[in-house]
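Researcher: Go.
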Amino acid sequence: MAAISAALVKELREKTGQSMMDCKRCLVETEGDVEKAIELLRKKGMAVMEKRGGRDTNEGCILSKISDDGKKAIVVSLCCETDFTSKNDNFKAVVQNMADGLFNADAIPADIEALGTLPASDGRPITEAINDIISQTGEKTTLGQFARYELDGPGLLYCYVHFNGKIATLLQIDAENDQAASSDAIKTLASDLAMHITAVNPDALSRDDVDPELIAKEREIAKEQVKGKPENIIDNIVNGKIDKWLKQIALLEQPFVKDDKKTITELVEEVGKEVGGKLTVKRFIRLQIG
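Model: Structure:
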């Protein structure tokens, strides 16, 4: 068996951030091969992940980034078990790698798995950097939600990250012309909408975007609630309940939190008239950890 020197253990510890004992143990197992020891530590990290698979990941970090020209914006989240880990410099570095990777990727990843294949700062896939965190902390650590929006015409991208770093909203407003897109009023509107979305948590942009299966389930619930009513009025009552429900969950139909006498649609139209060009809320995503 190869002798494991203190210098070799120190080298592995500096490369991985693991404890001296764990480094020495893995070096002994791999007969002093540092690269194999690193791989073994990562595998042990994955074993920890599997062992703790049922644990809640209610802590973590969200980062956002907008290009200098305002034409591209991203938001990403990484989840873990404890606040202590989320404040770890290595954890923060992985989140930053995720943000940079998503921002600079040639194409938007199709899903979380594809996001994990993007390179970290050292060229390794992000998932490998996450495995290092798992191995170091023993905590379940998972990729969270993400989004990348890009403008293809006049408009504004805006991202709000709550002070606790665990809730964020990214939204896109399209404008009819450059004058409207660069106005102070549209910037105020974007800020107000982001705060509204963060606070109210709408399920969809409009009622047309609501999942038909979800509507069908809600309709069944409504029908159950009106059992015993005269047959000739049941449909009207159910339709009324569905209409009220859709107004509650669709952003454009919700009352504005800062002035509930107007809906979000009315607010957007009002600002559009003020800036001299039609404004359209194209899309949004709200991320929340925990």
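Model: The radius of gyration is 25 Å.
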